## 1
Amino acid sequence: MDDITLARGLHILGVVVWIGGVSMVTTVILPAVRRFKNPEERVAFFEAVENRFAWQARFTTLLTGLSGFYMMYTLDLWERYTSSSYFWIHMMTAVWVIFTLVLFVLEPLFLHKWFHRRATTNPEGTFRIVQTLHWVLLTVSLVTVFVSLLGAHGTQF
Ligand code: HEM
C-alpha cells in the first residue's frame, strides 16, 4: 500500500465519521429533542450531545483536511483550483473551511453562548434555526461527497 492509498483511506474514514455524525444529529437527535416537553431538559440534553460530538467532529475535520492537503501536495494537484471543471475540489475545500470555522472559531467564541442564551428564552425559535442550519450543512456535505466521489473516479464535469 502506498502513501496516497493510505491518505485516501484516512480521508474517507474522516468523512464517514464526521458527515455521518452530522446526519445523525440532524435527522435523529434534533427532531427527537424538539419533542421533549421540558425546555430546560431539551437545552441540557442537546448541549451534552453536541459537546461530545463537537470533539469527534474537530478530530475528523483535522484528519480529513490533513489527508486531503497531503494528496493535493504529493500529487501536485494545485492547478485544479484554477479549473471550474474541478468544482468538486472547491466544494470539498469550502465544506472543510466552513466546518473548521464553526468548530474551531465560532462555536467556542460565540455560538455556544448565543445558543444557550437564546434557547433559554425562546427554545422553539432557536431549535428551528439550529435544525435549518444543520439541514443546510448536511445537504451541502452530502452533495459534496457524491460529486467528489464521481470526480475522483474519472467523471468529467
Ligand atoms: C481541505 C479539504 C479537502 C481537501 C484538500 C481534499 C482533497 C481531496 C483530494 C486531493 C482527493 C483525491 C482526488 C483524486 O483522486 O482525484 C479527495 C477525494 C475525496 N474527497 Fe476530499 N478533500 C477535502 C475535504 C473533503 C470533504 C470535506 C469531503 C466530504 C464532504 C471530501 C470528500 C472526498 C471524497 C468522497 C473523495 C473521493 C475519494 C475516492 O473515492 O477516491 N473531501 N479529496
Note: Residues 3-151 form one domain.
## 2
Amino acid sequence: MHEMSLAEGIREVIEDQARRHDFSKVRVVRLEIGRFAGVEKRALEFCFDVVMRGGPAEGAVLEMIDLPGRAFCYDCGESVVLNDRLDPCPNCGGSN
Ligand SMILES: [Zn+2]
C-alpha cells in the first residue's frame, strides 16, 4: 500500500512547513491527485488519519482534488492531457 508512504510524506511536508512558518495547527489539507497517480482515495484517507496523529495536522480534514492525467508525448514533444493511459496523443495521434 503506497498510500501509507504518501501519508508519511505529507506529514513530513507539514512538519517542515510548521517549523519554517512557526505554526502548530493545520485544519485542512488540500491534496491534488493526478488521474494516473494510482492513489486509492479511501486507503489514503485511512492512512492520513493514522499518520497525522500527534502532529500539527491531527484531526485535519483531507480534501482530495482530482486532476486530469498528463503525459509527455515523445512524438511531438508536447505535454498533453489524457483520459486514459493508452489513449493516443490528442495533439499528433502518436502513441509514444
Ligand atoms: Zn503528440
Note: Residues 73, 75-76, 78, 89, 91-92, 94 surround zinc ion (CB under 6 Å).
## 3
Amino acid sequence: MAQTFHWQQTNTPLHISLAGGTLTLSFDGKVNLSFDGEGRLVGAFLEQITYRRALDNRILAKWIDAERAGRRQRRFLDEEERHSLLDRCYEMAADVAAGLTTGQLIPPANRPALDLIDEWLARVAGWDWPKLEAERTRFLDVYKPVPILPPDQYLSTVVQATEGCSYNRCTFCTFYQDRPFRIKTLPQLQNHLTAIEQFLGRGLTLRRGIFLADANAVIVAQRTLLPMLDAIAQKFAILPPDLPAEDRRRWQAGHPIHADGIYAFISAPDALHKTSADFADLRDRHLRRVYVGLESGHDPLRHFLAKPGRAADVLRAVETIKAGGVGVGLIAMIGVGGEIYREAHRRDTVALIERMPLDHNDILYLSPFVADAASPYAQDIESAEIEPMGEDAIEEEIGRFRSALKAWTQPRGVRFSTYDIREFIY
Ligand code: SF4
C-alpha cells in the first residue's frame, strides 16, 4: 500500500509504495517511477508517456496518439534520449532521498517503513548512466537477446534452456535468425541459472513466473527435460500445483520470493511428439501453461506462411496438452495474409478454436500482424501481389474475431487479450 508523504514547502504529495517487488515513487500522481530491488529503473510515467526499461538498458516509450483516434504509439528511445531520461529519473529519486534526510519530505503520521524506503533509495543512488549502460554487457553475458515473450510473461524470469527455434522457417518470423538451435547440457543450464540469479539479484522479487526459452524448449526429450525442470526448481522456489487454499497461503508466506509456475512456447508438431502423460509429468514439475502459435486455422494460409503442421494438428496438440493438465495460450495472428485471406482466415480460425477444450486456465491471444520488411513473408506477399491489411483494417478485424468468439469464450471463462509484439520488452 502506498504511503503519502508531503513536501514541506509546497505541501504537494508524494506517494511511496513498496509492493510487487518494486519501489514506486508517485509525484502528485503526475510522474511515476518504479525501481527493482537492485535500484534499476523498471518503468516511468512522465508527461503522458509510459517508459519501460529493459534489462539491457533499452527503453520503450508508449503513448496514446490523440490525433489518430486514440491509437497507441510506441518506439525505442535513442541513446541520447535514454541518457537524458535516466538522468532525470535518478535525479528525482535523489531528491526524494535528500528530502527524507533533511526533513523536507514529511512522512505520514502512521510511521511508514522508513528504514526499508531509505535502504531501497540507497540502492537506487548506486546507479548512474555508465553503470546502467554497462548492464547491457552483463545481460549479454547471461542471455542471448530475448526477442519475444507472451504479454502475460513480460515479468517472468527467462531461462534459456535452449537457444533459437528448431524449425526457424516460418516466413513471417525473424526472431531467432541470429542463432542456431541448441539444447543446453544440464551443467550448462545450472551455470546459466546461477548467472541469472546473480544478474537479477533482488530484482527477482518482481518476477512472477519462469519462462523456459527460447522458441520451443519443450521439444527437448522427456529424459532430458525433466531433470532440467528439476534443476530450475532447485534454484528458484516455485509454487507447487494444486495446493488447497490454506496450504497455498502457508507456502507463499514461507516463500516470499517465488515463481508461480513455469511457462514456455511450443509448436503444435512438437507438442504431438509428447503424450498427455508426458504433459502431466511436466505439470508435476511446475509447467503451468504453454503458448501455441496457431497463427491461422486456414490451412492454405498456414501453407503460405510455411507454418509447420496443419490446423487439425493444432487442435490435437491442444487436446493433448490440456489432457495433461497444462494450460494453453493460443495465439492467432490477425491481418496475416492480407485482404485475400481475410474472410477464410477468420472463418476457419474461429471454427477451429470453437472445437478446442479451452477453459479458464487458458488465454486466447489476438495478435495484430506486423510484417518484418526483412522477412521472406514481405517478399512473398509482394510477389503474389497480395494487398496487405493496414492498421485500421487489422483493428477492425480484431473486433470481428472478438465478436465471433465472444459467445463461445465467455461461458468457458477463456480470457481474451491482445498480443502486440511491438510492446515486448524484457
Ligand atoms: S516455429 Fe515459432 S519461432 Fe519458429 S520460426 Fe515459426 S513462428 Fe518463429
Note: The pocket of iron/sulfur cluster is lined by residues 165, 167-170, 173, 175-176, 215, 267, 293 (CB under 6 Å).
## 4
Amino acid sequence: MAQTIGIIQIKGGAGRSTLATNLSALLAERNTVALIDADMPQGTSAAWASIRLADKPHSLTLATTTTYQDLVEQVSRLAPHHDYVIIDTPPRGAEMTRAALILSDLCLVPLTASAAEIWATSDLLATIHEAREVRSDVDVRLIWTRFRGNTRSAQELSAVAQQDLGLKELKNKLGYRVAFSEALARGLSVLEWPDRTARVEFQAVGKEIKKILEGKR
Ligand SMILES: Nc1ncnc2c1ncn2[C@@H]1O[C@H](COP(=O)(O)OP(=O)(O)OP(=O)(O)O)[C@@H](O)[C@H]1O
Ligand SMILES: [Mg+2]
C-alpha cells in the first residue's frame, strides 16, 4: 500500500508543481510512483509527466482530477499498486487542500521567504485544523524554496513562520535555482540536470522526506 504525499499551499506560484514533479522523479528511481495532478486545467505536473512518459517507459503513473470526491477515488484506486502517491493541489479551493491533508501521510507546504506567502500560509491553518478533526495525525511540514538564507529578511521570516504558524519545517531547503524551471520544461528533474548544487540540495530534501515516511511505516 502506497504512502501518500500531498503538496499544498494557498498561494499560487509557491513551487508546488516543482516539488511534486521533482519528488516524483526522485522516488521513481527506486519505487513505483503515482502522480496525481489535482490542479487542472492548469496541469503543470500533468504536462511534465506527459513529456517524461512519452520519452521512455517509467515507474511513474500519471492521473488527473478536478474534484475532491474524485481525488479520494483516485487515491484508493492507485494506492494498492504503487509505493508512493503524490498529489499536486490547486492554490485555491479549501476542499481539495482538505482532502489532500486527510488522504496524505505527509503534507508539504512550499514556502518562499516572502511575507505575502507567510500570511497566505496562515490562512492554511484553518484548513489544517478542519482536517485534524477528521484525521488527528495529519502531518504538515513547511519546506523552504527559492531560499536566500544569507539575507536577514529570510532568517527573520523563517523564525516568524515557525512561531506564528507553529508548523515543523524540513531541515533541508531549496535555493533559488534556474535548473528547476529549465528541467521542468523538458520533463526532467534537477537530478537529471547539469547543476550540481541543485541536485545535491534536492537529494538532501528527498532523503529527509523518505526518512520521515520510513518512520511512519
Ligand atoms: N527553487 C526554485 N528556484 C527557482 N525557481 C523556482 C524554484 N521553485 C519553483 N521555481 C519557479 O517558480 C515558478 C512557480 O513554481 P511552480 O509552478 O512549481 O509553483 P506552483 O505553486 O505549482 O504554481 P501554480 O500556482 O502556478 O500551480 C516556476 O516558474 C518555477 O520554475
Ligand atoms: Mg502548480
Note: The pocket of adenosine-5'-triphosphate (ligand 1) is lined by residues 9, 12-18, 39, 42, 44, 91, 145-146, 174, 176-177, 180-181, 184 (CB under 6 Å).
